[in-house]
Design brief:
The chain has eleven helices and twelve strands. By secondary structure, it is α/β, with parallel strands linked by helices. It has a single domain, classed as NADP-dependent oxidoreductase domain (TIM Barrel, Alpha-Beta Barrel), CATH 3.20.20.100. This is Aldo/keto reductase.
């Protein structure tokens, strides 16, 4: 597994990271034993970056990671944790809390659940309008100085907010949705991150399975699968987006690879500062995703992909209207 550095100020990590969210939440039931086996397989394959959130399964995801790392060398894993989202007992969402006192509280619980004395990259999942980003980053800087956090990250913030945050303390990386059909960050956010020396950890590289090559029209989702509420998976939008996948499939088959592999390889090809997070919940999906690291896209391939899936080709927004309005990254 090749490595990349999360910007100028962050840690060196594997070129592909593993996102753990789906092992505990939001995509329907997952098999815990298979989840742990998948994490083990990822570590054995050289993946070092493991991304979680304290609100994934209301703490379950962190405890799952703790169990997976038991008996392994903790220092070989780079653990990235998001915090701030508030949940209720039914799994609902109650906003975001990034006040200094809340951040310190969240971290205390995270360290206990993970069974570790530090988090490698700690970041707010979303900002809150009542707390300036300078105050958030200032609090995180205190935790870095105390040794509880190694690096500060951000998630889904605009270029302007990234500049303000970085002026307070160096930011290692910005986690943001970035894929063949989610390319808005290319306008301002990615150039700003490169200018500042901030890395990018790209989530949603397969658009939650939509462009994996495995999603089919008529596939049903349960009430616990949040994709059932996403515009890109609904009605005519889904038909349009699956047509894009079919166009991508023709290119993948010509190369002798899968749709998922060519979609991940495209993100890998966006520069050494970009680290794609793959959300595999099973070992077979992990094996397929790892194959993307061996796919080198030529200029001809990239041109064909661009023609098949233009930057503005996706039908529907990546989140519903309410969630889109809450994203700092979507504010101009």
């Amino acid at each position: 597994m090749e490595t990349r550095t999360l910007g100028t100020f962050g840690p060196t990590v594997s070129a592909l990271g593993l996102g753990l969210m789906g092992m505990s939440d939001l995509y329907g039931p997952a098999d815990e034993a298979e989840s742990i086996a998948t994490i083990h397989a990822a570590l054995d394959a050289g993946i070092t970056l493991l991304d979680t959130g304290d609100f994934y399964g209301m703490g379950h995801n962190e405890m799952l990671l703790r169990d997976a790392l038991r008996g392994r060398n903790r220092d070989k894993a780079v653990i990235s944790v998001k915090f701030g989202a508030l949940r209720d007992v039914d799994g609902g969402w109650n906003g975001n809390d990034v006040r200094p006192v809340a951040i310190k509280n969240f971290l205390a619980y995270t360290l206990r659940r993970l069974g570790t004395d530090h988090v490698d990259v700690y970041r707010p999942a979303r900002l809150a309008p009542d707390v300036p980003v300078e105050e958030v980053v200032g609090t995180l800087a205190e935790l870095v100085k105390a040794g509880h956090v190694r690096h500060i990250g951000l998630s889904e913030v605009s270029a302007e907010t990234l500049r303000r945050a970085h002026a307070v303390h160096p930011i290692s990386d910005l986690q943001i949705e970035y894929s063949l059909i989610s390319r808005a960050p290319e306008a301002e956010i990615l150039p700003t991150a490169r200018e500042l020396g901030v890395g990018i950890t790209a989530y949603g590289v397969l658009s939650r399975g939509l462009i994996s090559g495995h999603w089919t029209a008529g596939r049903e989702t349960t009430g616990t699968d949040f994709r059932s509420h996403l515009p890109r998976f609904a009605g005519a939008n889904l038909d349009r987006n699956l047509a894009l996948v079919d166009a991508l499939r023709a290119i993948a088959e010509a190369r002798g690879v899968t749709v998922a592999q060519i979609a991940i390889a495209w993100v890998l090809a966006r520069g050494e500062t970009v680290v794609p997070l793959i959300g595999a919940r099973r070992r077979d999906r992990l094996t397929e995703a790892l194959g993307a690291a061996d796919v080198t896209l030529t200029a001809t391939d990239l041109a064909a992909i661009e023609a098949a899936v233009p930057a503005d080709a996706a039908a529907g927004s990546r989140y519903d209207e309410a969630q889109m309005a809450f994203l700092d990254s979507e504010r101009s």
